[in-house]
Design goal:
Blueprint lengths: L1 H18 L14 H4 L9 E6 L11 H10 L4 E5 L14 H22 L4 E7 L1 H11 L1 E5 L2 E6 L12 E7 L11 E2 L13 H7 L6 E4 L17 H4 L1 H27 L26 H16 L14 H15 L2
Parallel strand pairs: 1-2, 1-3, 3-6, 6-8, 7-8
Antiparallel strand pairs: 4-5
The structure holds 2-acetamido-2-deoxy-beta-D-glucopyranose (6 copies).
The site of one 2-acetamido-2-deoxy-beta-D-glucopyranose has 5 residues, from loops.
Length: 339
């Protein structure tokens, strides 16, 4: 038992190291390839993507390929900016998840407001994964409440009828811990299950005005967004981009085309922002680089789920969970990342 756990933990750690080096190669990896980072700038473009990454991952984390696909497919200028926040998993300490998510929500709103005021002709797109998915939903619908043994401050919903809410073209989130099942925007075979925490009626009402431009994905067996679905395997939290990024990119590109057509109909002058999509790389701005820490993210979130559920129906993890294995995986991941 010990040996097989050790062996699989070792494999997990090693696969992180291998996968972190290349995109696209889905699973436990982050997308920080130069062609993706080159799209990062907050200059005014026709379409601008805000990205909230998952816990403990490098910017922009797992959503890099999705960003790239969308900007590649959009027939206009397009770039992205990261929502700046720590993305601490609860593994990093007691009560750290909530302040992290609060910061993401606050910064995300401010960044969207600032950008939309500075770039009034730009259409906004919002993506989020894991903790970042919760953050994105909190930005739009309002957030707050108990989760992962802490209490997140509440924030109001973003008004759909004024800037920046009125400039939102599309939003897609994947594997959110704070979610409610069976919404019109729920997608994936875990759609019928509440997350680690559910959204309040008020928060759902806050999301409702965005339902026509929102897709919220949850996989069955994802310990974060669908705890209690059996078998819960961590791969179900990693597989969103392998499974859904093509359809999400197609959906966003289609919406952008409709938007472009409408813009052309409304005015004869197709005056679009002059900025090109080819952005200056921010590789040298001290942003974190790809690392093996995403393993810790999922490991941690799964452990969080387990502890959060300790009083109720404790979910079973087929890949094992709990302090000693977590510490073991963390040790191996850190060791491997130093290779
Ligand atoms: C939270 O994340 C930031 C990086 O995003 C890191 O510097 C900090 O040490 C983390 N905090 C904890 C408690 O782990
Ligand atoms: C979602 O809807 C399905 C089908 O109606 C139902 O079985 C399930 O209990 C609902 N989920 C939640 C969390 O209420
Ligand atoms: C799911 O969450 C909603 C609140 O958003 C709650 O009304 C409902 O009872 C929950 N369903 C289950 C099965 O826990
Ligand atoms: C644009 O105008 C044309 C011609 O009037 C019409 O056929 C088309 O449906 C319009 N497109 C949109 C997106 O409104
Ligand atoms: C085009 O005009 C319609 C009707 O006035 C308006 O609802 C829509 O937002 C406009 N679209 C663009 C892209 O300006
Ligand atoms: C972004 O804006 C800055 C300042 O206006 C400008 O110097 C830079 O060339 C722009 N970058 C791109 C990629 O357009």
């Amino acid at each position: 038992m010990r040996h097989s756990l050790k062996a699989s933990a070792l494999l997990l750690g090693l696969s992180v190291f291998i996968n972190a080096q290349k995109c696209p190669d889905y699973g436990i990896r982050e997308c920080t390839a130069p062609e993706i980072l080159a799209l990062e700038t907050d200059n005014c473009t026709d379409y601008h993507i805000f990205v909230a990454r998952g816990s403990d991952s490098a910017y922009p984390g797992h959503q890099g390929d999705l960003i790239h696909l969308v900007c590649d497919g959009i027939d206009a200028s397009c770039n992205y900016e990261n929502i700046i926040y720590p993305a601490n998993s609860s593994w990093s300490g007691e009560g750290v998840w909530c302040p992290s998510a609060e910061k993401g929500t606050k910064n995300g709103r401010t960044q969207m407001q600032d950008y939309a005021e500075r770039c009034p002709d730009s259409k906004l797109i919002l993506f989020g994964y894991s903790q970042g998915a919760s953050v994105a939903l909190d930005i739009l619908g309002g957030g707050g409440g108990a989760i992962y043994d802490c209490e997140q401050d509440s924030n109001p919903a973003l008004d759909r009828s004024t800037v920046p809410g009125s400039h939102l073209l599309a939003a897609a989130v994947f594997g959110a811990p704070r979610r409610t099942a069976n919404q019109t925007y729920s997608h994936g075979d875990g759609a019928n299950y509440n997350g680690t925490a559910a959204r309040t009626e008020e928060q759902l009402a806050g999301l409702a005005p965005y339902s026509d431009v929102l897709r919220e994905y949850c996989n069955y067996g994802d310990p974060i967004c669908a705890p209690g679905t059996e078998p819960m395997v961590v791969e179900n939290h990693w597989s969103y981009f392998e499974k859904f990024q093509d359809e999400v990119a197609e959906w966003v590109i289609k919406i952008s085309k409709e938007d472009e057509d409408q813009g052309k109909n409304n005015s004869s002058s197709t005056s679009k922002s002059a900025t090109t999509a080819t952005a200056t790389s921010k590789l040298s701005t001290g942003k974190p680089t790809a690392s093996a820490t995403e393993t810790l993210d999922v490991q941690n979130n799964a452990a969080e789920t387990t502890s959060a559920d300790a009083t109720g129906t404790a979910p079973k993890m087929t890949w094992g969970a709990g302090g000693s294995l977590g510490a073991l995986v963390m040790g191996i991941a850190i060791a491997v990342s130093m290779l």
